[in-house]
C-alpha cells in the first residue's frame, strides 16, 4: 500500500513539474515576422487604399497596432541584411544578394533562448550573382548557420532564371529540392510549411521569419485569379494581377492567424506584418488622397515607407495607431529586448509599444545608408539621409519637407527656412555627422 501511495505521489509531482515547465514555455511569447516583398503603405486598405480589399490585415490593425511611419531600405537585400542583423548597411553590406557569414541574426537570438526557429519564403542571401567572389554561394546549409532550425526557401543556390517563385516554383526545403509541379504555387507551399511548423512546435516557444515572395514582379495570376485556369497565362506579366496578389497576401495572413486561433496560441503570439521596401514603380495605387506611384529602389518616401502592423491577442488591450518612427534596425533590437539579451545593434527597441504603451517615443529620427551595389540602373540612386516624419536631410545638404513635397522635387533653400525648420535641420545635421562620410 505504501509503495502504491509513494508511486502516486511521485507521479503527481512529475505531472506538476510537467505542467509547470509547459506553463514556463508558454510565458515566452511566440513570434511570427511576415515580410512582404515590394509593398508600400499605399497598397493596403488600412492605410487608405481604395481598390485593394484586405480584410484580414484590416482586422489585425483594428485589433492591434498600426505603425504609420515604418522606414525600410529602398531595396530587398539592403533591407533584409539591416533587419536580420540590426546594423546599418555601411557596417556589414558587401554584395547584393548576400549576407556575410560572420553576422549574428535575430534567428540566433531566438535560438540561443531555446526557441524553435523557422524561415520560409525568399532567401536571396547566398551570393549567387557573385560565384567568382563568394566561395560558399552553393552551400544549402547557410540558412541553418544564420539561426534557423528549418527552412523552405526560394533562390538559395539557383537564380530565378532557373526557376521562378509562383507557378511551378523551384524551392529548396531543408537542403533538398522539392519536385517541380506545374500546378504548385510557391506562396501556398511556403505558408503551408509555416503552418505545419506552428502546429508541430505549438507546445514550446517558436520564432517564424516569413519573407514572402508576394507581391514582387512578375505580376502574375494567383490560384484565385480567373486566368490561373489557363496554364499558358500563369507567367503573363501584367499589372492587372497586382490586386490579386495583394488579396492573396491578405489571404495567407488570415490563414496563419486562423491557425493561431484554432491552436489557442493567439494570446501568446506576436504577429508582425511589414514589407522590405516600397512598391514597384509600374504600380499606381488609388488611395483616399489620390493616386500614388510605387517608389521601389528610390530614396523618396514611396521607396521606403512600408506597412507595419502588429497583433498580440489580448495583450494589446486597446488597439491604436502609432505615429512615431520605426526603422529596420529596430526589429533586432526589439527581439533582443524581449529575450533579455544585450542589444548589439544600431536599432532601438519598440517592445514597449508592442506591450501597448502608446506614448513611448523610441526615436526622433531614422537613418538610411543605401548603396545596393547592384546594376547601374539600381545603384544610381545610392544615397545617405536622416529624416523625421516631415523632413529629410541628405548627405549632400539637400533638405526637404516630405509632407508638402513627397516626391522631393524642390529642396528647401537655407535662406527660406523658418526658425523651427532651422532647428530641425540642425538636429538632422548632428545625427548625420554620427555616421561615416559618404564615400562615392
What does this structure look like?
- The chain is of the alpha/beta class and 440 residues long.
- The protein has 2 domains: 27-368, Alkaline Phosphatase, subunit A (3-Layer(aba) Sandwich), CATH 3.40.720; 383-432, no CATH class.
- 30% of the residues lie in helices and 19% in strands.
- It has helices at 2-27, 55-63, 76-85, 89-92, 106-112, 142-145, 186-200, 242-262, 301-304, 330-338, 351-354, 376-379, 419-432; strands at residues 30-36, 65-71, 116-122, 150-154, 171-173, 176-177, 206-211, 269-275, 284-287, 290-293, 305-311, 320-327, 366-370, 383-387, 391-394, 399-401.
- The strands form 3 sheets. The chain has a 10-stranded mixed β-sheet, with helices on both faces. It has a 4-stranded antiparallel β-sheet with strand order 13-14-15-16, covered by helices on one side.
- A hairpin with a 4-residue loop joins strand 15 and strand 16.
Report how far the terminal alpha carbons are from each other.
85 Å
CATH topology of the largest domain: the name is Alkaline Phosphatase, subunit A
> What is the strand tally?
16
Helix amount, in percent? 25-40%
CATH class of the largest domain: Alpha Beta
Low-pLDDT windows of residues: 4-25
**What is the mean predicted local confidence, pLDDT?**
94
Main sheet record: 10 strands, mixed
Approximate shape: globular
What order do the SSEs take from the amino end to the carboxyl end, as H and E?
A: HEHEHHHEHEEEHEHEEEHEEHHEHEEEH
Gyration radius from CA atoms, angstroms: 23 Å
Provide the CATH architecture of the largest domain.
3-Layer(aba) Sandwich
Q: Tell me the count of domains.
A: 2
Write the CATH homologous superfamily of the largest domain. Alkaline Phosphatase, subunit A
- Give the assembly state of these chains: single chain
Give the class from helix and strand content and strand pairing. Answer: alpha/beta
Measured by DSSP, the beta-strand proportion falls in: 15-25%
Helix segment count?
Answer: 13
Strand order of the largest sheet: 6-5-4-3-7-1-8-11-2-12
Amino acid at each position: 500500500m505504501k509503495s502504491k501511495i509513494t508511486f502516486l505521489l511521485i507521479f503527481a509531482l512529475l505531472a506538476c513539474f510537467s505542467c509547470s515547465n509547459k506553463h514556463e514555455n508558454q510565458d515566452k511569447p511566440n513570434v511570427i515576422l511576415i515580410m512582404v516583398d515590394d509593398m508600400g503603405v499605399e497598397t493596403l486598405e488600412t492605410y487608405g487604399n481604395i481598390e485593394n480589399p484586405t480584410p484580414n490585415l484590416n482586422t489585425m490593425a483594428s485589433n492591434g497596432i498600426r505603425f504609420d511611419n515604418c522606414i525600410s531600405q529602398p531595396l530587398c537585400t539592403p533591407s533584409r541584411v539591416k533587419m536580420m542583423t540590426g546594423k546599418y548597411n555601411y557596417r556589414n553590406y558587401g554584395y547584393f544578394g548576400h549576407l556575410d557569414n560572420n553576422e549574428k541574426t535575430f534567428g540566433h537570438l531566438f535560438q540561443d533562448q531555446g526557441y524553435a526557429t523557422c524561415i520560409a519564403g525568399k532567401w536571396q542571401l547566398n551570393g549567387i550573382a557573385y560565384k567568382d567572389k563568394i566561395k560558399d554561394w552553393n552551400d544549402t546549409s547557410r540558412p541553418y548557420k544564420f539561426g534557423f532550425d528549418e527552412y523552405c526557401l526560394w533562390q538559395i543556390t539557383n537564380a530565378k532564371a532557373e526557376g521562378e517563385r509562383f507557378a511551378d516554383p523551384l524551392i529548396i526545403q531543408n537542403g533538398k529540392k522539392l519536385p517541380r509541379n506545374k500546378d504548385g504555387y510557391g506562396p501556398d507551399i511556403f505558408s503551408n510549411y509555416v503552418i505545419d511548423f506552428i502546429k508541430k512546435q505549438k507546445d514550446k516557444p517558436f520564432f517564424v521569419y516569413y519573407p514572402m515572395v508576394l507581391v514582387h514582379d512578375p505580376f502574375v495570376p494567383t490560384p484565385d485569379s480567373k486566368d490561373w485556369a489557363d496554364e499558358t497565362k500563369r507567367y503573363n506579366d501584367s499589372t492587372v494581377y497586382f490586386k490579386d496578389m495583394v488579396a492573396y497576401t491578405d489571404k495567407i495572413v488570415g490563414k496563419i492567424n486562423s491557425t493561431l486561433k484554432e491552436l489557442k496560441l493567439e494570446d501568446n503570439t506576436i504577429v508582425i506584418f511589414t514589407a522590405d521596401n516600397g512598391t514597384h514603380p509600374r504600380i499606381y495605387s488609388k488611395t483616399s488622397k489620390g493616386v500614388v506611384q510605387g517608389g521601389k529602389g528610390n530614396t523618396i518616401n514611396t521607396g521606403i515607407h512600408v506597412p507595419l502592423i502588429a497583433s498580440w491577442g489580448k495583450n494589446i488591450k486597446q488597439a491604436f495607431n502609432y505615429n512615431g518612427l520605426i526603422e529596420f534596425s529596430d526589429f533586432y533590437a526589439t527581439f533582443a529586448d524581449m529575450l533579455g539579451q544585450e542589444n548589439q545593434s544600431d536599432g532601438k527597441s519598440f517592445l514597449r509599444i508592442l506591450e501597448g504603451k502608446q506614448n513611448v517615443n523610441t526615436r526622433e529620427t531614422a537613418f538610411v545608408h543605401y548603396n545596393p551595389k547592384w546594376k547601374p540602373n539600381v545603384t544610381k540612386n545610392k544615397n545617405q539621409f536622416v529624416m523625421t516624419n516631415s523632413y529629410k536631410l541628405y548627405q549632400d545638404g539637400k533638405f526637404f519637407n516630405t509632407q508638402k513635397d513627397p516626391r522631393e522635387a524642390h529642396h528647401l533653400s537655407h535662406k527660406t527656412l523658418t526658425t523651427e525648420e532651422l532647428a530641425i535641420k540642425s538636429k538632422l545635421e548632428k545625427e548625420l555627422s554620427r555616421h561615416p562620410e559618404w564615400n562615392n
